[in-house]
Specification:
Amino acid/polyamine transporter I, two-stranded parallel sheet, single chain, Rossmann fold, 644 residues, mainly alpha
Length: 644
C-alpha cells in the first residue's frame, strides 16, 4: 500500500499512472495503452537543432553520412531503453535517482547543467519555429522569436486535457513532418543505390568525393569527422533521458515480475518504432539535401534558410519550400512541449520544488527568447545558424552527466534486482558512453583550440582552463562515486516532508476574529462561519472597504454618498450583532481593497481573518482583481476563505 500522497510525490504527479494498462483488454487496445511516451521523446531527435547538421551533411558529403544517423539512432535507442527501465522498475525518473545517489552539492551542479541543457534545447526550438514562421509568412525573424512565447498557453491547455491528448498532439505533428518530407523526397527522386551505399560506415575524403562529381573541394579531410560528431551530438540529447524515465510512469502496470517484464517489452517496442520514425525523418532531411544540393554542385548549403530558398528553384516545384517551412514549424512546436516537461521533471526531481506551470513555461521560454533577440539585434539574421550550432555544443557538454548516472542506475543489482542490465549490455553501454564523451570532447576542444590560437585575452583563456578542469573533475566524480560510496545517506525524493508525531497538538485560541464584508447576500454566511470559529466570547472586527473613485483618492477624508451609505450599513450590522450579545467593532477602509484589509487586520492584532470568495476566475480576475490571493500571502495569521 502507498501513502496517501504517494502519487503527488511521483514524477509528473498529475499524470502519474493516469493510463491504465492493467485491464483485461487484448489486441490493439492493449497495445495502444502502452504506446505514447516514446513519441514525446522522439521529437527531441528531430528538432530544429538537428536540421542544420543534417542539411550540412547531405549538401557537403551526399549520402555518405547516413550511417552516422543510423549509429546515433541505435545509441539513442539503447539509452532510452535504460531510461524506461529505470522508470518502470525503480519508479524513479533520472533526476530523482540522482538525488538519491549523489551528495547534495553535486546534485545542485547536475541540476544547473540540466537546466542549461533544457534552455539550450528551447533556444534551438525557438529559432527553428521563428525561421519557419519567417519562411512561411515573411515576418522578420525577431517577430517570429517573440511570437513563440504564445505556445506557452497551448501547452497549459494540453496539460489540462491529460497526457494522452498531449501524446496525440505530438504524434499528429510528427505525422505532419513526415508527410512534408515524404512529398519532397518523392519530388526529388533520390538514387536508391546511393542511399544504400550511405549505410556503409566511412569518413569520406572531400577531395576524392568531389572529384567523382566533377567538383572542386576546399574542405579539409577532418570536416567529415567534425560533421559526424555534430550529428551524433545533435541526436543523442540529454534532456530526453530525464523525460522518458518520467513519462513511462504515466502507465499503470501490474507490479508483479510478469507485469514489469510486459511493460519493459512494450516500452522497447514503443521506443523502437518512435525512434526509427525520427531516424527516417533525419535521414529524409539528409537525403533531400544530398539529392537537391550535393548532386547539383551546391555543396555550400549548410543553413536552414538557404536550403529553403533553393529547394523550389532546384526541384521546380513551389510547394517544396512551403512543405519544408511547415515541417520546421511542426518540429519546433513539438519539441518545445517536451522541453517544458523535462524542465518540470528536473526541477521537481533535484530540488523537490513545484512551481506554477505557467511560470515554469514562461521562465524557460524567456531564457531562450532573450538571448535570441539580443543575438539577432547585435549580429543580424544572417548568422542565426551559428547560434543553433552553439546550442548543440551546450547539449554536448551536458550529455555525459546524464548518460553515466543512467548506466550506473540500471546496472545496480541491489535496487534493480533481476531487471538489472546484463553484463554484455553493460560493456556495450560503457563503450558507447566513452565514445560519446570522447567525440563530444573532440568537438568542443576543436572549437576551444581555434579560439585559443586567435584570442589575446588571457583572462578568458584562464577561465577556459579552470572550466575544463572543473568539468573533467565532475565527470570523474560521477563515474567513481557510485562505485566507492560508503555511508552516503540517500536523500528523500518526496515532495513533502515526513509527517511528525501528532500527539502534542498546539490548538489555537482565537481572541480577535476579523471579518471582511462586501455588503452582498453572502455576508450572512460569512458572519455565521466567523461565529462558528470564534464563539460568543470572542471579539469580532467587521471590515468593509469603500471602493468609490473619491475614496481611492481622498481616503478617510471622503464624504461622498457611497461612503455615508456604507458607514450606515456597517453600523446597522454591528448594532444587530451587539443586540445578540456579541462583542463587535466596525471599521471602514479606503483606497486599495487588499492593502486596506491587511492594514486593519494588523492594526487590530486579529488572530484570524474570515473572507468571502468572489467566485470569479480567469479573465475576470484581471477585471475585478484577486484580493484573496494578496491578503493570504501578506498576512501571517490564518485566513479562512468562505465560498458562498
Amino acid at each position: 500500500m502507498h501513502s496517501p500522497d504517494y502519487k503527488y510525490n511521483q514524477s509528473l504527479g498529475d499524470a502519474h499512472e493516469s493510463v491504465d494498462t492493467t485491464s483485461k483488454t487484448k489486441g490493439w487496445r492493449k497495445i495502444f495503452s502502452f504506446i505514447g511516451p516514446a513519441y514525446l521523446v522522439s521529437v527531441g531527435y528531430m528538432d530544429p537543432g538537428n536540421w542544420a547538421t543534417d542539411i550540412a551533411g547531405g549538401s557537403k558529403y551526399g549520402y555518405t553520412l547516413i550511417w552516422v544517423l543510423l549509429a546515433s539512432n541505435m545509441m539513442a535507442l539503447l539509452l532510452q531503453s535504460f531510461s524506461a527501465r529505470l522508470g518502470i522498475v525503480r519508479r524513479r525518473d533520472l533526476a530523482q535517482a540522482n538525488r538519491e545517489a549523489y551528495p547534495k552539492k553535486i546534485n545542485f551542479i547536475l541540476w544547473v547543467l540540466a537546466e542549461i541543457a533544457i534552455a539550450a534545447t528551447d533556444l534551438a526550438e525557438v529559432l527553428g519555429m521563428a525561421i519557419g514562421i519567417q519562411l512561411l509568412f515573411g515576418l522578420p525573424l525577431i517577430f517570429g522569436v517573440s511570437i513563440t512565447v504564445l505556445d506557452t498557453f497551448l501547452l497549459l491547455y494540453l496539460q489540462k486535457l491529460g497526457i494522452r491528448k498531449i501524446e496525440a498532439f505530438i504524434i499528429a505533428l510528427i505525422g505532419i513532418i513526415g508527410v512534408c518530407f515524404l512529398i519532397n523526397i518523392i519530388i526529388a527522386q533520390p538514387s536508391i543505390n546511393e542511399i544504400i551505399k550511405g549505410f556503409i560506415p566511412s569518413l569520406p575524403d572531400a577531395k576524392m568525393l568531389y572529384q567523382q562529381k566533377g567538383l572542386i573541394s576546399t574542405l579539409p579531410k577532418e570536416t567529415a569527422l567534425y560533421l559526424a560528431i555534430g550529428m551524433i551530438g545533435a541526436t543523442v540529447m540529454p534532456h530526453n533521458l530525464y523525460l522518458h524515465s518520467a513519462l513511462i510512469q504515466t502507465r499503470k502496470i501490474n507490479r508483479t515480475n510478469k507485469g514489469i517484464r510486459e511493460a519493459l517489452k512494450w516500452s522497447l517496442i514503443d521506443s523502437t518504432i518512435a525512434l526509427n520514425i525520427a531516424f527516417l525523418i533525419n535521414a529524409a532531411i539528409l537525403i533531400l539535401a544530398a539529392t537537391v544540393f550535393f548532386n547539383t554542385g551546391r555543396t555550400d548549403v549548410g543553413e536552414i534558410k538557404q536550403a529553403h530558398t533553393l529547394l523550389s528553384p532546384v526541384l521546380g516545384k513551389s510547394i517544396a519550400s512551403t512543405l519544408f517551412a511547415i515541417a520546421l514549424i511542426a518540429s519546433g512546436q513539438s519539441s518545445t512541449i517536451t522541453g517544458t516537461l523535462s524542465g518540470q521533471i528536473v526541477m521537481e526531481g533535484y530540488l523537490r520544488i513545484r512551481i506554477n506551470p505557467l511560470m515554469r513555461r514562461l521562465i524557460t521560454r524567456l531564457i531562450a527568447i532573450i538571448p535570441a533577440i539580443i543575438f539577432i539585434l547585435s549580429t543580424g539574421e544572417d548568422k542565426i545558424d551559428s547560434l543553433l550550432i552553439f546550442s548543440q555544443v551546450i547539449l554536448s557538454i551536458q550529455l555525459g552527466f546524464a548518460v553515466i548516472p543512467l548506466i550506473h542506475f540500471v546496472s545496480e543489482k541491489k535496487k534493480m534486482k533481476e531487471f538489472a542490465i546484463k553484463s554484455y549490455v553493460k560493456i556495450i553501454a560503457w563503450l558507447m558512453a566513452t565514445l560519446l564523451i570522447i567525440l563530444n570532447i573532440k568537438m568542443i576542444s576543436g572549437s576551444l583550440i581555434t579560439y585559443w590560437t586567435t584570442a589575446d585575452n588571457w583572462f578568458i583563456k584562464l577561465l577556459i582552463i579552470i572550466t575544463c578542469l572543473f568539468f573533467l573533475w565532475l565527470l570523474f566524480y560521477i563515474i567513481l562515486f557510485p562505485l566507492i560510496k560508503k555511508g552516503h545517506q540517500s536523500a528523500s525524493i518526496n515532495m513533502h516532508h515526513d509527517v511528525h508525531d501528532l500527539k502534542d497538538l498546539n490548538i489555537p485560541n482565537y481572541r480577535k476574529v476579523a471579518v471582511a464584508l462586501d455588503f452582498s447576500q453572502k455576508d450572512a454566511q460569512i458572519i455565521s462561519t466567523a461565529i462558528g470559529q470564534g464563539g460568543k466570547e470572542k471579539q469580532y472586527i467587521f471590515i468593509h472597504i469603500v471602493e468609490s473613485a473619491t475614496a481611492k483618492i481622498h481616503g478617510d477624508q471622503t464624504a461622498d454618498y457611497e461612503t455615508e451609505n456604507d458607514k450606515e450599513q456597517l453600523d446597522r450590522i454591528v448594532t444587530q450583532m451587539m443586540e445578540k450579545g456579541f462583542v463587535v467593532k466596525g471599521i471602514l477602509g479606503f483606497k486599495e481593497t487588499a492593502n486596506e484589509i491587511i492594514r486593519i487586520v494588523r492594526e487590530e492584532n486579529a488572530d484570524l481573518l474570515i473572507i468571502g470568495a468572489h467566485g470569479h476566475k480567469g479573465i475576470k480576475d484581471f477585471i475585478y482583481g484577486t484580493t484573496i490571493n494578496k491578503v493570504r500571502h501578506e498576512l501571517e495569521i490564518p485566513v479562512f476563505i468562505v465560498k458562498a
